[in-house]
Amino acid sequence: MSAAIALPEGHSDDPIHSGAPNHPQASDMVIPDVLQRGTLMTKVSERAKKRVIFRIDPDEGQILYKSSKGGIIPIETIKEIRSGTDAHYYRAQFQLAEETEERWITVIYILDGTYKTLHMVADTRDVFKLWDTSLRKLYAIRQGLMSGSGNVGLRQAVWERQYWKGADKAGDQILDFEDIERLCKRLNVNLTTAELEKLFKEADTTNRGYLDFPEFQRFVKVLKHRPDLEAIYQKISSNSGGKFDFPAFEKFMQDTQKSKLSQDEIKSVFAKYTPEQPGTDTTTTSPNEESGFMTIDGFTDFLISPDNAAFSEQNDSIWQDMTRPISEYFISASHNTYLVGHQLVGVSTIEGYIRALLHSCRSVELDIYDGEKEPVVYHGKTLTSKVSLRDICEAIAKYAFVTSPYPVLISAEVHCGVAQQDMLVDIMNETFGEDLIQAPVEGRPKLELLPSPEDLRLKFLLKAKNLYVVEQLAAAQAHSKAATKSPLFMSLPKPSFFEADAPSSTSASSDEPEEKIIKEGITEIKEGITEMKKTWRKIRGKDNSIPKPKVKMSFRLAALLVYTVGVKCHGLAPETTYAPEHVFSLSESGATKLLKESTAELIQHTQKHLVRIYPKGTRVNSTNYQPHRYWASGAQLTAINWQTFDLGYMINQAMFQRNGRAGYVLKPVALRLSEKGLLSKRTQHFFDVTIISAEQLPRLRNPSGQELFEKSIIDPFVEVSLHIPDWSHSPFLPDSAKEAGAKYSPPMDATSTKATSGRTVSFRTRPIKDNGFNPEWQEELCLPFDCIGDMKDLIFVEFAVRQHGKDEGEPLGMYCVPLGSLEHGFRHLPLHDAQMSQHLFSTLFVQINIRDVD
Q1: Distances in Å between the alpha carbon of 96 and those of 92, 541, 815?
Q2: What is the DSSP letter of 115?
Q3: How far is 479 from 506, CA to CA, in rounded Å?
Q4: Residue 793 located in a structural domain
Q5: pLDDT at 806
Q6: Do residues 601 and 460 share a domain?
Q7: How far apart are CA 377 and CA 387, in angstroms?
Q8: Partner of 360 for a Cys bridge, out of 87, 238, 403, 707, CB 3.0 to 4.6 A?
């Protein structure tokens, strides 16, 4: 016997899969009874091995086992399932026999904001196969439903089975009134007992005093009635003579939704949600409906479908040009990738690399030190644990291109001696093979432009300091500074690009004519430039007489530094020249300082060179800065602590959900072209958003993941925030916005405890009392913002649904997206938890528009 999630009455398989043949379906979800009753397996942890009964509840969507800490793992909290050889790392870590590997399952999930692991070893291969196959099917269905708001039929089926099962405590396949009362409390429904009794009696058509499953479906349909959508539908119909035909839909799409679709494409969408479509039962439709009128049900299905997604880049295909130099892209980057916790005492593991790479991160970090036999990775001068470099490289090689085919940049701080530097090279050659970019140190051709992501497809690039280049660059810089301090140089007129600086006094005291002084000064500068050119020829390998640096470096390691050569930042003055392959890293404090002093120069530099920004090291709790502040200067690699779920992490995830989650996003035109007019264009706008309603907000949970039924029904409110780069000294904040309740937070530099942030403008709705099921606000908010160079993709809009009285706590649900990628009109926003996992059934319904200020 096996149990399956059944489709509710009135649904067929066809509407579920219309336009999405690869989506999971209910018929995929068959869970053997033996797994629902429970199987005895070995639970492995650092502390002990225990014999535990594990079971799967397919309707509630949970793994269950007895534990003092809860023993419940909701399927939607699972981030990855590893089994067999994929779980080799853990089997070896726990030093169990190799033969257990073929029966091993590791579940990686998030609970209470922390990554956790569950290790199970089945007694036999047959039990392992049952568990592995069934768990992956259930996981695939939940993941499919968590990728937006589509798959309407299946989503409804899963919802009905989950809440039917949760309400049927007696297991007798019927629900009496007390069961329904408990269910409504769980759903945060705000109805009086009398109102609930009325709905119950209407659903109990046979007057038996209880509801069977079909009657439960009818009860739910009434409970989920959407008067807000009905009002929109009626308004559109009344504006077109009382009918919702194609002309009415086309006008709605063009005028309200600001659709970019052609008329034929709009026709195709309209046909998809009208009753005549194949697979739809037309026996119950009226003649009007059969002749091409969209019903309220069709309109509702459209509004919550992927065809009306809020995020304009909803699909997973790569749509940007990937043939530009790599310096023209923002690149998803991680900081201290090996850590999964605190920067002073956290655990170093391969897990951080796997996690980041599966989320399309394209730049990972290694801090490499001498090990007993081979190099190891850990956070130097701290109490963090150590992990083998070989294990990390094997994990990177295995997971690098699962999500994205574009190059992975390995940013390494190399602290080991020459012998283990050579071992490092051997390990990388063995694990990455021909996919590792390398070239001889001597005789390299001069590089004019960096290659493109497409040129480097499926390749690995090592970025580390080339100590030979670092020493030569420092010498060249010292020579340049000495030349500029000479009396003759100081007496020369300032070039035009220094005109904004304070005038400097002349230090020359010669009695010679001024004309002669200037002539000799120009000669000295020309000689200095000639000397610097000789130095650069040496740096680029044109001269075989490069002296060895004081700090020893393996020539084999230097051969791996081709397009990403680490150097020290010597400022951005015109006399300081960097080759295209030179990359310097700046802490957020250093980057902020450089922004204040040389924003234009930094933008110009990042047009052809890579720059990496990393979090301030004194914030040992691994919090993150807000990366859009540095993206606005053109910095490509803004490294984030992926183990910390905060605003900086959320903004980073929102940015790189773009472009098919490739991990590379093409920078705005204003940051790629040298045309200064684009960056001088400042515009002012209003972000107009009507918060209409929310659907089934999640209940509060305890640290074990269990819903807190004893808590009162929530009083939700919505906070909308615009996170704006501080790209102008005077933000657009009119008095009308302040009077309406706009809250403004200025940009903040990093401190020992707080991260760098941009400016923020936010508004809040009023709270709705005792309703987390279908609260309705119908409240208009108007957020002012300014923009430079039309770079709306660098402004991030955050919607946070919060519990009244817990304003600063973790929100009930949130959604974050680049403003430039947010579609206009009526949209359902899928809500996520603080770890960016989507709540399966929770949405926020809004109307969106951007208004320009004349």
Answers
A1: 6, 51, 43
A2: E
A3: 21
A4: yes
A5: 82
A6: yes
A7: 5
A8: 403
User: Rounded to whole angstroms, what are the CA distances from 420 to 439, 446, 470, 558, 566?
Assistant: 20, 30, 21, 14, 19
| pLDDT at residue 185 in the model | 87
Task: Report the Cα 122 to chain-centroid distance in Å.
Answer: 35
**521 and 634 both lie in a single domain:** no
What tokens does 614 get?
A: 């990393």
In a domain, 150, yes or no: no
Sign for the CA dihedral angle at 233, 236, 242, 246 comes to negative
Which residue type is seen at 603?
I
pLDDT > 50? residue 59: yes
771 & 694 share domain: yes
CATH number for position 17: 2.30.29.30
62-65, strands of its sheet edge to edge: 72-74, 62-65, 49-57, 39-44, 114-121, 104-111, 78-83
Indicate the Cα dihedral angle 162, 164, 165, 168, nearest 10°.
160
DSSP state of 286: -
What is the three-class DSSP state of 560? Answer: coil
Q: Using CA atoms, how far apart are residues 512 and 78, in angstroms rounded to an integer?
A: 80
Same domain, 736 and 810: yes
Lowest mean pLDDT among 51-65, 338-352, 676-690: 338-352
| pLDDT over 90 percentage in the chain | 56
| Residue 288 confidence (pLDDT) above 70 | no
Most distant pair of Cα atoms in the chain: their distance: 114
Residue 79, classed as helix, strand or coil, is strand
Give the total residue count for the chain.
854
CA dihedral 358, 364, 367, 373 (to 10 degrees): 50
Higher pLDDT, 27 or 50: 50
The pLDDT of residue 384: 62
List, in sequence order, every beta strand (DSSP E) within 286-375: 329-334, 363-369
Q: Which strand (E) or helix (H) includes residue 670?
A: helix 669-672
656 and 559 together in one domain: yes
Distances (CA, A) of 663 to 52, 329, 361, 649, 660: 40, 9, 6, 14, 8
Q: Give the number of domains in the chain.
A: 6
The pLDDT of residue 795 = 97
Whether the per-residue pLDDT at 167 is higher than 60: the answer is yes
Q: What residues pair up with 106 in beta bridges, in sequence order?
A: 82, 119
Statement to judge: residues 417 and 558 lie in one domain: yes
State the residue range of the domain holding 217.
Answer: 168-223
Cα–Cα distance for residue pair 535/533, rounded to 1 Å = 5
For the segment 480-517, what is each residue's pLDDT rounded down to a tens digit? 666 555 444 344 333 322 222 222 223 333 333 434 43
Collapse the DSSP code of 759 into the 3-class scheme (helix H, G, I; strand E, B; otherwise coil) and give the result. strand
501's tokens: 């600086």
Domain finish residue from 308, 339, 360: 308
Residue 586 sits at φ, ψ, to 5 deg, of -130, 140
Q: Which is more confidently placed, 274 or 18? A: 274
Same domain, 478 and 577: no
Q: Which residue(s) pair with 799 in the sheet?
A: 720, 815
pTM of the model: 0.84
Mean pLDDT of the chain: 83
> Among 504-513, 574-583, 644-653, which is the least confidently predicted range?
504-513
Question: Do 743 and 818 fall within a single domain?
Answer: yes
Residue 674 has a pLDDT of: 78
**Cβ contacts of residue 30 below 8 Å, gap of 6+?**
2, 3, 4, 134, 137
